[in-house]
Specification:
The chain is of the alpha+beta class. The longest helix has 15 residues. The protein is globular, with a radius of gyration of 16 Å.
């Protein structure tokens, strides 16, 4: 099966309403299982890395400079990583709009943090670096969240342990930055 990221052309997202350059060795998870309509999920073919593009409700009560942290903490809640020490934000910086293809965003943010999470409700805990790109589109009442999950340490008891030893050509932060910089909107009708 050819992976979607083997071609540096932009890959259509949400039926072509958006597109982005997806890194090499990416598998479109929607071909394997059902995922929510507001998500596009790609997994590395040989590592436990993943990239998720999500359309979320614009959080008007959250100032732009705090919005990436807000969404990171929301992910921590979904990952059951809210106990003290289970998540940490290490960096939040604004994205330069001059370097982004998504000119419609009012602001863009890049966050790096870590979360200690379990997969599939397992007891085993894995440490995952999360790189998060946030594009704020108040005119469409939407926040576009792009998340790069990059496992750093895998518990031997985790279902991910078998892939932990086969890190062939893992994705890099540069690959993820290419996703963020290439994200483009083609059809604003996507937002209703």
């Amino acid at each position: 099966m050819q992976s979607v990221g083997d071609n540096p052309k932009p890959h259509p997202l949400f039926g072509g309403a958006l597109s982005a350059v997806i890194p090499p060795s990416a598998t479109d998870i929607s071909n394997l299982r059902e995922i929510p309509d507001n998500q596009e999920v790609f997994a590395h073919a040989h590592t436990d890395q993943s990239i998720i593009v999500e359309l979320l409700e614009y959080q008007s009560q959250v100032p732009d400079q705090d919005a990436a942290r807000y969404h990171f903490e929301d992910i921590a809640g979904s990952n059951r990583a809210l106990e003290p020490g289970a998540f940490q934000v290490t960096n939040v910086i604004p994205l330069s709009k001059s370097e982004l293809s998504l000119s419609q965003c009012s602001s863009g943010w890049f966050l790096t943090g870590t979360q200690t999470v379990s997969k599939f409700n397992e007891d085993a805990r894995n440490t995952v670096t999360i790189h998060l790109g946030l594009f704020r589109l108040p005119q469409f009442a939407t926040d576009i969240l792009v998340t790069f999950n990059d496992p750093q340490s895998i518990s031997p008891d985790s279902s991910s342990a078998s892939s932990a030893e086969t890190h062939r050509e893992p994705w890099t932060v540069l690959d993820f930055q290419r996703v963020l910089q290439s994200l483009s909107l083609h059809d604003p009708g996507l937002f209703g």
